[in-house]
Predict the structure.
Amino acid sequence: MLRNVKRLLIGNPLPSQRAKHERLILPLALAVLASDALSSVAYGPEQILLILTQGNQDALFLILPVALAIAALIWVVIFSYRQLLQVYPHGGGSYSVAKENLGVFLGFLAGAALSLDYVLTVAVSLAAGAAAIYSAWPDLHVNRVEVTLVILLFMALMNLRGIRESGWTFGSPTYLFIGSMFILLGVGFWKLIAGVSAAASPDVLTVTHSLDWFLILKAFSSGATTVTGIEAISNGVAIFRDPQDQNARKSLLWLGILLAIMLLGMVYLTQHVGLSPKPDETLLSQLGRWALGGSLLYYVLQLSTFLVLFLAANAAFSGFPQLAAVVAKDGYLPRQFRNRGDRLVYSNGIVGLAFLAGVLIYLFGAETDRLIPLYAIGVFTAFTLSQLGMAVYHNRHRQSGWRMRAALGVVGGLLTGIVALIFAVTKFTEGAWIVVILIPLMMLIPYTVHAHYTATARQLSLKGERNLPRKQPVVAVVPVNAIHRGTLKAIRYAESISPEVHVVHIGIDAEETQRMKENLERWCPDVKLEVLPSPYHSFLQVFNEYVESLQQSHPGVFLTVVVPEFVPKRPIQQLLHNQTALLLKLQLYGKEGVIVVNVPYHLKV
Amino acid sequence: MLRNVKRLLIGNPLPSQRAKHERLILPLALAVLASDALSSVAYGPEQILLILTQGNQDALFLILPVALAIAALIWVVIFSYRQLLQVYPHGGGSYSVAKENLGVFLGFLAGAALSLDYVLTVAVSLAAGAAAIYSAWPDLHVNRVEVTLVILLFMALMNLRGIRESGWTFGSPTYLFIGSMFILLGVGFWKLIAGVSAAASPDVLTVTHSLDWFLILKAFSSGATTVTGIEAISNGVAIFRDPQDQNARKSLLWLGILLAIMLLGMVYLTQHVGLSPKPDETLLSQLGRWALGGSLLYYVLQLSTFLVLFLAANAAFSGFPQLAAVVAKDGYLPRQFRNRGDRLVYSNGIVGLAFLAGVLIYLFGAETDRLIPLYAIGVFTAFTLSQLGMAVYHNRHRQSGWRMRAALGVVGGLLTGIVALIFAVTKFTEGAWIVVILIPLMMLIPYTVHAHYTATARQLSLKGERNLPRKQPVVAVVPVNAIHRGTLKAIRYAESISPEVHVVHIGIDAEETQRMKENLERWCPDVKLEVLPSPYHSFLQVFNEYVESLQQSHPGVFLTVVVPEFVPKRPIQQLLHNQTALLLKLQLYGKEGVIVVNVPYHLKV
């Protein structure tokens, strides 16, 4: 039954050889990989404004300078990834680059930071996607958390089925979003030039912060969430047509251009229209309503925003399981992350990511603003480490132009590192402290896991070739509470595998014991019933002591406990029987040197 | 660890021979057994008033006649139980009496009705006990459900520890309650005669029902909950000193006198003081406040009410598990109800009762008024059946005076039957429908259980003595994914129990397979590696098909699957390993003719 439900949700198993990618032409590949980066326009600019409006009215003029600084940051990251692709033309995650060039410790730091950020990408993107929807259809606002969780569940199932990253399905929403954004910006600037006034007068601000450097840096770091997602292109090199690295580098340029235009355009319009953040409508939606009115175009904008955010979250569902599989392959994460499911996807990584993202969404009420302080530290840490890794690489290999490239790596790394630091400090009390605590804790995982695997491999190894297991005589013990077809089958089995069989019974009722003795003598004359006295009702303890005494008197044998058990026709009927066999198995499970056999007797009715 | 928690909560195991009762002198035995019956005074009279106040002011004069009718009913039940004790001097529950004299079907009806009422006794008594407390200390009103559930949990643990029904601990609260009630009634009547007016003027009634027979009958049936608990004396005969039956019969008389005085006294005072039910204070507490003021005596009254209700609920914790054990002994309930735990109590019955009562308390918000419509139908059904059973008994045995006794049984039975019917009809829409549906459904349980046990016993029986299990050759299959100490131990074990060993591997990686072949040849030259091709990743299915083909080619053998498994030092480390062994066991569990052996390899680190 369970299997059928699984089939229905996940689909039939796929043969192993079908695990390969289709390759896409540049514009399509760009669209597929850019959703993560572009979608951050949906919440990044709003975050700048959200912080600046905590200052006085004067603070608002800072929005454009802050946005310009972020655009500059975008280009730093774009250039350093272009550098990276020259060295690692097949793409390379921060984890691999850092581990290779900076050592295991910093590799783990990058891995932990990235993992946390994958989880937050899912949570933030889905929350922002939900916000796009309820901005357009306010009635849906009520059950935000539930709606977001249902979408997450759907996404997890979709990924467990194994979606093929078909170019058109994944590329078209991105182009739809880009198109809507350009129409929005075009109409917006036209209206601005034509002198159409703002639809709504800006709300009077409640000043909660004085305008100081802290506020400006905070606004900057909030807006820096727009930079997230650029790394997706270098991780996804595999889907580009040849020459892969060149196409990927071109894509990065295009991505930088698109991202800068959208960010700056949106911020400029926002400032000049005089919009301010509202709790129940996103800034992008307000801008859309102002520019496009209630027209169809506005709804297309909102829907495409949702779709591109959905794809951004979905990108994490291919990124995280792959990262986990790579780390697991190195022996630093539980090896279950390497298991491909029936549908050839890394099911455990998918389930794990969905679970963690679900917890975050639930805890933070699916509110983007509350999730943002946790976000982006990981991304900027990973940026920093991969750029410093590149610097070390160039310093080591000293190919032509290495000085320039190493310097670029150091500068870029320091810059993004400073952003991470600004983020951690300015957002510390609002949630960044969680990340600051979590990342070091997460770094303990790979060390613990690796230590266990090494210890296991050493113990299982056949290199020290003495004391190897040998054939040994078998001694069988059969605990019985009555003589019937079920226990008789178990006794016969014990006789079949062993020349020495002990049939034991815990005596509580003398009369019953006598009857059993006679019965056993009649059906199995070669074995004797051994009766163990039990002053207490707990028979498990008495049996345990008996087994231990046998172990002592029979060293060097395979001591085998043969447990008779009947299997009812319907599992529910199991409830009508004492679970002695189960308890016995649990009790003996941890016992060294004891082997447990279940002899099932199948009931027909 | 779990075991230690259990020890702490439940205590150490007790030796089996300590399962016997201490015997008590009459006044003490009466007190121990009467708590259930007497405690119903705490809610019964209030229920009458609650219904009558739905009519107009005129309806209130009916409270005394209704109470008189209930007092008469009490005496009918008292007399019929005195009759019953003459025939069953060692006591007998309705289930046994009905089953013996009226047949299995009506026996099950009595059993189902009684079981349901035990659950309701717990729920109603605890809810009413909580009400007694928060009437005196209104601050505790807020978390009523939680407080009641915590008390229930405490009671269940106490019973799992096995309380000895020590006379003084259990008897003194009853006497304290009786004493407080008599002081209340004494002071009350003195004040009434002295002409002290009511403390509070009665509220103006909102008339929601016209005064008709339906309302009167409804009030009567609500008040009839006062009759519950009388059967406890006949169930508890064992604790009386000899001559047991005579002492028990005397106790019944005393109980009837006490119950009648308390009920009528309370009702008379209530009517003449002009009190009416309030949602946040019980009637008894109102009466107490009026008569005793804020004196210590008032708080003693409330506390003793709580204690006596607590004991009433506790009585169900010895009644239900015993009933379940008796029915299970007859083969009509899962035999786990017969298991005595470490502390010699019927643990499963206790846990089951606590769980069901907890569900009821939670669903009905721990409100007595809402639970009452479900209560008492069961008790009156059981009364009816045991009295009709007595009538049949006398008609069969025809001892001296049998006509008179049989007639009394029939009349008593009809009377209580009519009460049950009135209850079911007048309370139908308020919750009695649940009971009317539940009881027949519960009656299906014994039939289903018995059918399964009979079928099982028939299949396990050795009477048809052909086709008995015989010694058979053993064929062993060892699935391996690598050659190491763990799998080698499993292969050696397979070689030790069987001359024919198949070591199989699901081939996914050709290179790995080749390495395994060489390794196996080196360490175990007598066995060959069989490689099964797997087009899919799911190795379970491939292995399953292999086992099936072996079954077909080797009929009449004990086919044994030897599963290598390593046991890490700490259970948590299990998470770092693939759960292949577990999945394999689950897969093979339902498979007829296959025996599964686990060969554990214990890791040291």
The domain at 22-453 of chain B is CATH 1.20.1740.10 (Amino acid/polyamine transporter I).
